[in-house]
TrEMBL record, chains A, B:
<dbReference type="GO" id="GO:0004419">
    <property type="term" value="F:hydroxymethylglutaryl-CoA lyase activity"/>
</dbReference>
<dbReference type="GO" id="GO:0046872">
    <property type="term" value="F:metal ion binding"/>
</dbReference>
<keyword id="KW-0456">Lyase</keyword>
<protein>
    <submittedName>
        <fullName>Hydroxymethylglutaryl-CoA lyase</fullName>
    </submittedName>
</protein>
<keyword id="KW-0479">Metal-binding</keyword>
<dbReference type="InterPro" id="IPR043594">
    <property type="entry name" value="HMGL"/>
</dbReference>
<dbReference type="InterPro" id="IPR000891">
    <property type="entry name" value="PYR_CT"/>
</dbReference>
<dbReference type="GO" id="GO:0046951">
    <property type="term" value="P:ketone body biosynthetic process"/>
</dbReference>
<dbReference type="InterPro" id="IPR013785">
    <property type="entry name" value="Aldolase_TIM"/>
</dbReference>
<dbReference type="GO" id="GO:0006552">
    <property type="term" value="P:L-leucine catabolic process"/>
</dbReference>
<feature type="domain" description="Pyruvate carboxyltransferase">
    <location>
        <begin position="4"/>
        <end position="270"/>
    </location>
</feature>
<comment type="similarity">
    <text>Belongs to the HMG-CoA lyase family.</text>
</comment>
<dbReference type="Pfam" id="PF00682">
    <property type="entry name" value="HMGL-like"/>
</dbReference>
Length: 315, 315
């Protein structure tokens, strides 16, 4: 049975979409707890401008205060050269760079054409060389909420350009929950053929209920790395009604039930997930934290024992 | 591409768990609308006692007033011989009988041991012979929330006993959302080998987020019939925190995206789903009615056109 590795994105991708500031203390405490759960990687924060994303204005302080657990990689989102300098000073284990495969989505999200994004990220990759490994997250790879279909060839073209620059990993993102399992299987097959030497991660959203079906489809094609967000927190402002990233604990629960190892302590992860609504001040989409694991049994109603006795004495 | 058939259970399994009575007019109007959507089957109501399930006390009136569309089968839940008489008078196209494969679940839910349930249902099957086809829904086939594991052999033993009585179909139910995709694939394979001549239906709940993953796993093993509930309405009182049956429109949406035909007009079904919160007086779990289909695109923010022009004039 294939071992599956998770990258937890709740404190970056999840919190970034929250309206109320989460305190630095709460962020550090949550990341330390997640570190103890057994993740392969945690996306801690983003070195973007405090003006653009006030939620992550404490990136340096968070990176300075978390307890680093050996075996866990602490990755950070790096939007540009200035962010890369800050990330290096903060001793990030990996840079995660982001751009979209859809021109309209890139303009909407990053306010520049894809070519300009690529040129900027190429500078960041040059800076990182010999110092820190780079992962590139490509957005809207399974469809754009404004353009519609994003051809597979377009996704591969951008992936190729980054692979040629020597990045360690690629994350293929279904940014607004448009992927379906047949499409995922095709994409996973092509990615593994073409980028088998790179660290390949898939990033799904559960916007249309297909999140775990897409994880299943990916695993069936040999994919072994996923982004997940505690509680299913996160979402994209360009997909109204979206319910967010796939929920880490729901995905881990399914994979464990199927016999896969993840290295994650699910009981401990669920305890962390049950604290999340108190941290963000509202209910979150994750289902296992509410319904319990399939192994969490319930007592029978009291009348069952009486009925059992009654029918036994009759027979 | 395999054609997939749906049985809509919202007005029976869904409404049965609702606290507020849904008017007979509203039930008839909804069923008539669902009939026009292209379902293979609709489980209209249950001929149980009005005292046991007040919500379905209007079973005769609903069956008398709905418009029957050729090609749609109108099935009803029949708990006993008295219910069978009423169902025959109401010209039901099929009897759906229910018992659990878990002794504790059967005692909790039907307040009698499985053997007593079986004996009663055998009488109903004898009554139906030559008049109306019978389907048997077996509950808790993927696990019992009180007993835990339900061995596959136990499920097959009960399925065999009903098959020997000449029923037309079997519905294998994951009553409380405990099934996972690896288990579903194994079960589907065994069921198709053993009961290939019967109408085989799978019934999933999305309690733990695996509903559509389990549909995918079933389809991969050649299963072509599913129960679904509009809006994902329904649930089981013995599974606290449960989110209910798989959502019909979310399942149909996924299967259409993957290239399967279902005979269902998804746009019309979504219009019906969007009325459901008004009928039951609360939000429902279905996601496509909120997020839209993957083909429902959104306009780009107004600044995108400006940015596009600005960057074009620069280059």
């Amino acid at each position: 049975m294939q071992r599956i590795l998770f990258n937890e994105v709740v404190t970056r991708d999840g919190f970034q979409n929250e309206p109320e500031f989460v305190s630095t203390d709460a962020k550090v405490a949550l990341i330390d707890e997640l570190s103890a759960c057994g993740y392969a990687k945690i996306e801690v924060t983003s070195f973007t401008s405090a003006k653009a994303i006030p939620m992550l204005r404490d990136a340096e302080e968070v990176m300075g205060r978390i307890r680093r657990v050996p075996g866990v990689e602490y990755t950070v989102l790096v939007p540009n050269v200035r962010g890369a300098e800050r990330a290096l000073e903060s001793r990030a284990d990996e840079f995660n760079l982001v751009m979209s495969t859809s021109e309209t989505h890139n303009l909407a999200n990053l306010r520049m054409p894809r070519e300009k994004s690529f040129a900027g990220l190429r500078e960041v990759i040059a800076m990182a060389q010999g110092q820190v490994p780079v992962n590139v997250s490509l957005s809207a790879c399974f469809g754009c909420p404004m353009e519609g279909d994003v051809p597979e060839d377009e996704v591969l073209r951008w992936a190729d350009r980054f692979a040629e620059l020597g990045v360690r990993g690629l994350t293929i993102c279904d940014t607004t929950g448009m992927a379906h399992p047949a499409q995922v299987r095709r994409m996973a097959r092509v990615l593994r053929e073409r980028f088998g030497a790179l660290q390949l991660t898939l990033h799904f959203h559960n916007t249309r209920g297909m999140g775990l079906a897409n994880v299943l489809a990916s695993v069936q094609e040999g994919i072994d790395r996923f982004d997940g967000s505690l509680g299913g927190l996160g979402g994209c402002p360009y997909a109204p009604g979206a319910t967010g990233n796939i929920c880490s604990e729901d995905a881990v629960h399914m994979l464990h039930a199927m016999g896969h190892e993840t290295g994650i302590d699910l009981a401990r992860l669920l305890a962390a997930a049950r604290l999340l609504p108190h941290i963000v001040g509202h209910d979150v989409p994750g289902q296992i934290a509410k319904a319990g694991r399939i192994t969490d049994l319930h007592p029978a109603p009291s009348y069952v024992a009486e009925l059992r006795q009654q029918f036994t004495s009759l027979s």
